[in-house]
């Protein structure tokens, strides 16, 4: 099974012609609330791709909390260990302008209360095939979760987003690091993704750098770099492409499929998601991925 230790957020998205300047009020065109958060997105992606998935994290005691939990349960993600804590859920306040540019304020809310693991959390992690982590929970609990997985012989997959300087003790317990191009550069100071991937191999044994429409680059110690192209699609909305990629990749790796095959399958899942609007609602089901890949 796959366990996600990560965030849930309600995305509150206002669409406007031009974003307001400080002190200014503008009338928007439309508004949507979209369940998200990197952790929840990866959990839904993995569940839709056919994985058995459980989520550890927290939602608030507000209405958003109900909806965030409900979205996960609706996708068959086990939420027994998703806490409900007094106070607001995590929110992302997003203004999207007519040029597709955006400005975002993320308020961690309930996510910020996840500072330690319960015995139940630890038992769940210890019994998993893979643990998926991102950086939208307090860093200390991310390190604790990954360290516990490592001690239990469970493979850890870290998405280093939102990107920030990472302590060596986190790299030490990361098996597979999956940055996008921007994150790979921020972590290493190398603009070239090949150079960044090789630099990251000095701190973790396996790296996948995702390259948007250009696919991804896989690096492992003692092996040649592997470039996997992405299927060509007309991109409508690339929100959560990376989370879809990681969720599907986790399913394939959890089934013991070879890395090149797992990367092609994950790339196909992500490409399918960018052809449709939305985050979790755009993520493909297993049969769609298999059909698109022709398997
Ligand atoms: P993030 O969403 O985290 O910024 P990327 O933009 O690198 O990450 O996208 C992650 C993965 O999603 C890519 O490796 C690729 O497989 C797929 N993807 C993203 N954009 C496209 C696109 N325009 N066409 C096809 N696949 C895409």
Walkthrough of the structure:
It is a single chain. Helices cover 35% and strands 22% of the residues. It is α/β, with parallel strands linked by helices. It has a domain at 41-59 and 112-293: Ribokinase (UDP-N-acetylmuramoyl-L-alanine:D-glutamate ligase, 3-Layer(aba) Sandwich). The strands form 2 sheets. Strands 5-4-1-8-9-10-11-12-13 form a 9-stranded mixed beta sheet, sandwiched between helices. Strand 8, helix 4 and strand 9 (155-158) form a beta-alpha-beta unit. The radius of gyration is 18 Å and the shape is globular. Residues 180, 210-213, 215-216, 230, 233, 235, 238, 241-242, 245, 267, 270-271, 274 line the site of adenosine-5'-diphosphate.
The mean pLDDT is 95
Helix content: 25-40%
Order of helices and strands: EEEHEHEEEHEHEHEHHEEEHHH
Note the beta-strand portion: 15-25%
Low-pLDDT ranges: none
Strand count, sense and closure of the main sheet? 9 strands, mixed
Our count of helices gives 10
User: What best-fitting shape do the alpha-carbon axes yield?
Assistant: globular
Q: Rounded to an integer, what's the Rg over CA atoms? A: 18 Å
- The span between the termini is 23 Å
Which small-molecule species are bound to the chains here?
adenosine-5'-diphosphate
Looking at the overall shape, the CATH architecture of the domain at 41-59 and 112-293 is 3-Layer(aba) Sandwich
Strand neighbour order, sheet with most strands: 5-4-1-8-9-10-11-12-13
Number of strands: 13
- What is the CATH top level name of the domain at 41-59 and 112-293? Alpha Beta
Q: Name the CATH homologous superfamily of the domain at 41-59 and 112-293.
A: Ribokinase
Secondary-structure-based class equals alpha/beta
Q: Which fold name is given in CATH as the topology of the domain at 41-59 and 112-293?
A: UDP-N-acetylmuramoyl-L-alanine:D-glutamate ligase
